[in-house]
Amino acid sequence: MKPENVVYAVTGVLFGLIAGWIIGTQQAPAGTAGPMAAPAAQVAAAAPAAQAARPMLDEAQVTAMKNVADRDPKNVESRTQLGNLYFDAERYAEAIPWYQAALAIDPNNANISTDLAVCFYYTDQAGKAIAQFEHSLRADPKHVKTHLNMGIVRAFGQQDLKGAAQSWLQVLALAPGSEEARAAQRALDNLNRAHPEGAVVPPGGQAPAAK
User: Fold this and answer.
1) pLDDT tens digits for 121-131?
2) Reduced to 3 states, what is the DSSP secondary structure of residue 23?
3) pLDDT tens readout for residues 144-179
4) Burial category of 105 from C-beta neighbours within 10 Å (exposed 0-12, middle 13-18, buried 19 and up)
5) Is residue 93 included in any domain, yes or no?
6) Residue 199 resides in a domain
7) Range of the domain at 159
């Protein structure tokens, strides 16, 4: 999946343009330049900013992976890769059944679960996205990208700013100094700037202890 620019607006306040918020669960942390070579998914995000033409689907890889999946009903990698291929092509509705099939084989895989959650969000199913993120965190309570993405969906899919802040504070507690922590801190700073009359997060407030 490729990094994208995301415009955040909550309660009529433009939070600004943030690059690289979409970070694949199976990738190294995203920078602000260049596409990722590793597999897709996810960080859920608010509605994408205006984009160029949709990326092309690699039909040859799809055919090859479908052949592998057909031959082996228990092959989780082929199903995950099919989900990634459709995700990378921004065909999120078509990625969903493949991630679901992979998750049926490997139900405690937080990466697959979080990728599925992002697809739910991009298909206007914020409630299902949150429920899927919760499944990811039951499998791996310290899954940093899930906490980061859940904060985004809470903020921009459900207008739950305090819930979003708690998710981002968890990122700071779990992975201080990481790319995800820097993204979470920018989000928290933006929340406070957007609400000067009463900060959502106290300046310099302590992050909750990691569980």
Assistant:
1) 999 999 999 99
2) coil
3) 999 999 999 999 999 999 999 999 999 999 999 999
4) middle
5) yes
6) no
7) 5-194
